[in-house]
Design a protein that fits this description.
- The chain is mostly helical.
- The protein has a domain of 111 residues.
- The model has no long low-confidence stretch (mean pLDDT 84).
C-alpha cells in the first residue's frame, strides 16, 4: 500500500512538471533584475550625489529660516522707517576750522590746537556761550561770531597765555615744583576741578594740560563773566593764571588776539551797489 502511494505521488509530480514546462517561455524566465553594468554604477552614483546635494540645500534653507529674526507685529513697530529716494536736504557740513595760534611754530602743536578745540566742544561748551564783559578789548568780533570762531578765540587766547606761562614748553615746571605744563597748572587744582591729569607728570602732557585748563576756565569765565577784570579781586581767567594779573601782559596778549582773523570784525562781503546817476538832458542850445 505504501509503495502504491509513492508510485502515484511520483506520477502526479511528473505530470505537474510536464505541464509547467509546457507553459515556460522559450527564451527562459523573464525577470526585472539583471546584473549591474559599469554604466549602471555611474548612473546610480550620480543620482546619489544629486540627492545628497538637494538634501544639503534643503537643510541650509531650513537653518536660515531658523536664524532669520522674527518679524515684529505691527503694533510693536512704533516708528515706521520712511526711506526717501530723493532727499531735499543735504547733510550739514561739519566745520573744521583750525585757527592760527601763537604756538604754531612749535613742532607737534597742531595736535594741541585740535585737542583744545575738542575740549571746548565737549566740557568747555559754556565758554563759547559766554560773552565776557571785557571781550571787546580781546576780540571785537567775538559777539557776532559763530560758535566755531568763538572757540578759535579761546584757543588763541590760551596760546598767548602759554607764552608767558611756559614759553610753549609742555614739560615746564615752575614755582618750585608746584605748577606743571603748558599753562602751569597746580595738581591740587586739577584734582578739585575733576581733570583727567591730576599729577605733575600727567600735566606735562600738552593735550591733557589744555583740557584741564579749559575745564577750569569753563567754571571761572561764566561765573565772573570776564577774562581778566579786577574789582574786589581778579576775575575770570585771571583768577587762576598769574600773567592775567599784569596789565602789561594783558595788553600784550589782547593786542595779539585782536589782530587774528577770527577777532577782526567783518561787515558784509557783498559788493556795495553803485549810486544810481541819472543824466539830465538840457534843451538849451549853445547860442542861448
Amino acid at each position: 500500500m505504501f509503495a502504491i502511494r509513492n508510485l502515484l505521488g511520483g506520477i502526479f509530480a511528473i505530470t505537474m512538471g510536464t505541464a509547467a514546462l509546457a507553459e515556460w517561455p522559450v527564451g527562459g524566465p523573464v525577470t526585472e533584475i539583471r546584473p549591474l553594468s559599469r554604466a549602471d554604477v555611474v548612473v546610480l552614483r550620480t543620482q546619489a550625489a544629486l540627492t545628497r546635494a538637494e538634501d544639503a540645500r534643503l537643510a541650509a534653507i531650513a537653518s536660515l529660516a531658523e536664524a532669520r529674526p522674527t518679524l515684529r507685529p505691527v503694533y510693536m513697530v512704533r516708528y515706521p522707517v520712511t526711506i526717501s529716494q530723493n532727499p531735499t536736504l543735504r547733510p550739514v557740513m561739519r566745520t573744521n576750522y583750525i585757527p592760527d595760534t601763537r604756538w604754531d611754530f612749535v613742532s607737534g602743536s597742531d595736535s594741541w590746537t585740535r585737542a583744545a578745540l575738542a575740549s571746548l566742544r565737549s566740557h568747555g561748551s559754556r565758554m563759547e556761550e559766554t560773552v565776557p564783559r571785557d571781550i571787546d578789548a580781546w576780540c571785537p568780533a567775538y559777539t557776532e561770531n559763530p560758535p566755531h570762531l568763538r572757540r578759535a578765540f579761546w584757543v588763541g587766547m590760551m596760546s598767548a597765555l602759554a607764552k608767558h606761562e611756559s614759553t610753549y614748553r609742555p614739560t615746564a615746571v615752575g614755582g618750585g615744583d608746584l605748577w606743571y605744563g603748558l599753562l602751569q597748572i597746580y595738581p591740587d587744582t586739577a584734582r578739585r576741578y575733576g581733570c583727567r591729569a591730576t599729577t605733575g607728570e600727567e600735566l606735562k602732557d600738552p593735550e591733557d594740560n589744555l583740557s584741564c585748563a579749559i575745564r577750569i576756565m569753563n567754571v571761572t569765565v561764566p561765573r565772573d563773566n570776564a577774562i581778566a577784570i579786577r574789582d574786589s579781586r581778579w576775575r575770570g581767567v585771571a583768577a587762576d593764571w598769574g600773567p592775567m594779573t599784569h596789565r602789561s601782559k594783558i595788553a600784550e596778549m589782547s593786542a595779539w588776539t585782536r589782530r587774528q582773523e577770527y577777532c577782526v570784525s567783518r561787515r558784509s562781503i557783498r559788493p556795495q551797489a553803485r549810486p544810481i546817476v541819472q543824466a539830465t538832458l538840457s534843451s538849451m542850445s549853445d547860442d542861448s
